[in-house]
Amino acid sequence: MTEEFKKIDAGKKVELDTVKGNLQIGDGATLVAENKTIVVTGNIISKGSFLVEGSLEAVSIRCKRGSLEVEGDLKVSKYLSIDKRLVVTGNITAPEIDVGGSLNAKSDIQCQEVKAGGSITIGGNAAIETANAGGTIKIEGCSNIGTIKVGGSVTLEGTTELDILRVGGTGKVSGGKIGKVRIGGSFKASEPIEIQSIDVGGTVKLEKDAKVGTVSIGGTFKTRANLEFETINVGGTVSIEGTGIGNSLSVGGALSTKGNMKLEGKLSIGGTSKIDGFIFADEISVGGSFSSEFAKARYFKIGRRGDVYGPVQAEKIIISERATAEDLFGGEIIIEERARVRNVYGETIFIEERAKVSGDIEYIDELSVEGEVELKREPKKVKSINYPDY
């Protein structure tokens, strides 16, 4: 049955099938689908709120000073503009959605752009080019989205394929792939994830294996599994409970790992570093204390009054003034004033005044001792160094 309607009065409940042309709806009206879906070939304009019992199709929908609730699927070919609240039980398909308050899609949504002044909640999967909310965004299904911008918080519970994530507060995701993450507060991923770049003002926590590119964090960075990365720069602390493989790592505070670490570039730690395994890097520079099962680098330096625990092998080693170290193996080794070292094995060794070596000193080319130095054993000139076999 086909009927033509142009206007439905406020508060009326009307059965509809197909409406040819535009449709005006009064506040509090209810549309009942005769055959599951109401099809409007033109535009819908509502002066207030209305309810649809069934699915609805139209060219566009403009709901002034009101809300729209659809107990089925909602499909428009141009745009949805709702001043207050939009609730859809079924799937939503629309190029553009603009909601002044909240959007609640209980199933899947597919569109180019979604805007909400308050919150966006999606119970199913989301395929969106741009999602923008002043408050919160929550997606329970899989997310295939270009850009998300949220003033408050975002929660993505399914697998994520996302280009850009920008959040003023907190971000929680399951796993998947993200291009750029920029968050003012904190970020957490509960499943394996791959991210090109992370810029977070507060904290980052990764529960499973992760692969990241550039990381810049004001507070703390923690991963409970293995981590592959390009560059990490953290103002506070870094904790890696698995192995770490990357290019460079700079930490203002402290670094701790539960596995081995391999860096193509530099490790720079302002405070302390505790590595429960081996570390291999081009350059290692630590301001406070450094601990590892074995450290190998081209260049190694511990800062003034710093402490080194575990053997170190490098082409050049500098133990700064008043610092302490255990066993050193290298090409050029410099032990500055009042430093304390156990064993030293090097091609060229320089020991400054009032330094102390409590164990062996073996050198190939040259040993230079400055002023008053405390040596417990007589230095030995050797033909080769027995480097650690790790």
Brief rundown of the structure:
By secondary structure, the chain is an all-beta fold. The protein has no helices and 43 strands.
Structural domain tally? 2
**Percent in strands:** over 45%
Mean pLDDT across all amino acids = 94
Please mark out the parts with pLDDT under 50 across 5 or more consecutive residues, or reply none.
none
Structural class: mainly beta
Largest sheet: 43 strands, parallel
Count of distinct strands: 43
Helical proportion?
Answer: under 10%
Distance between the termini: 83 Å
* Helix count, DSSP H or I runs of 4 or more residues: 0
Query: Tell me, what's the shape?
Result: rod-shaped
Q: In angstroms, what is the radius of gyration?
A: 32 Å
Describe the structure.
The protein has 390 residues and is mainly β. The chain has two domains: 1-102, no CATH class; 103-381. Helices cover 0% and strands 68% of the residues. The protein has a 43-stranded parallel beta sheet that branches. The termini are far apart. The model has no long low-confidence stretch (mean pLDDT 94).
